[in-house]
From TrEMBL:
It holds the Pfam family Cytochrom_C. Keywords: Heme, Iron, Metal-binding, Signal. Residues 1-18 form the signal peptide. Residues 132-155 are annotated as: Disordered. PROSITE patterns: CYTC, PROKAR_LIPOPROTEIN. Residues 138-155 have a biased composition (Low complexity). This is C-type cytochrome. Gene3D superfamilies: Cytochrome c-like domain (1.10.760.10). It comes from Falsiroseomonas selenitidurans. The keyword Metal-binding applies. InterPro entries: Cyt_c-like_dom (IPR009056), Cyt_c-like_dom_sf (IPR036909). Residues 30-121 form the Cytochrome c domain. The keyword Transcription does not apply.
Length: 155
């Protein structure tokens, strides 16, 4: 029974393909595996490219690739766990006029979704500005470039 539980745990972790985010970006009470389910269930891929979420290949809103490496959230506040959870619960309170709709996420759902997003780019081996593999971001067949940080910024 213990081996079966361990195997299930490894399967779930592998399905998430998530790296552990840095301590400053960990979400208390958040679960990345549940967050992937929340993101898929609420249709976030209808507007965003989100690695690891089947069908999340839309460019209506900003792509959420390498989220853990971003410095600003909604163009207004530092990308920090408390701000992301608040934004996911009520986007208009953080960024009035944002195209991001209020999805009606509860506190636990927002924490889980944020925990998943902070796994994206947490252990990125390819630096910004390097090509993504075909099919890794969006529907175009050719490779794309990873987001480039401003010149001189740590990468």
């Amino acid at each position: 029974m213990i081996l079966r539980a361990a195997g299930l745990t490894l399967l779930l972790l592998g399905a998430c393909d998530a790296a552990e985010p840095p301590a400053a970006l960990r979400i208390a009470g958040g679960d990345a595996a549940r967050g992937a389910q929340v993101i898929a269930a609420h249709g976030c891929g209808a507007c965003h490219v989100i690695p690891g979420i089947p069908g999340a290949v839309s460019w209506v809103g900003p792509p959420l690739i390498e989220w853990a490496r971003r410095g600003v959230l909604a163009g207004r506040v530092p990308n920090a766990p408390e701000h992301l959870v608040a934004f996911l619960r009520n986007p208009q309170a953080t960024s009035p006029g944002s195209a991001m709709p209020n999805l009606g996420l509860g506190e636990a759902e927002a924490r889980d979704a944020a925990a998943y997003l902070y796994t994206l780019g947490a252990a990125q081996a390819v630096p910004a500005g390097q090509p993504l593999a075909p099919g890794e971001a969006g529907t175009l067949p050719g490779p794309r470039l990873r987001p480039q940080l401003r010149p001189g910024a740590p990468q």
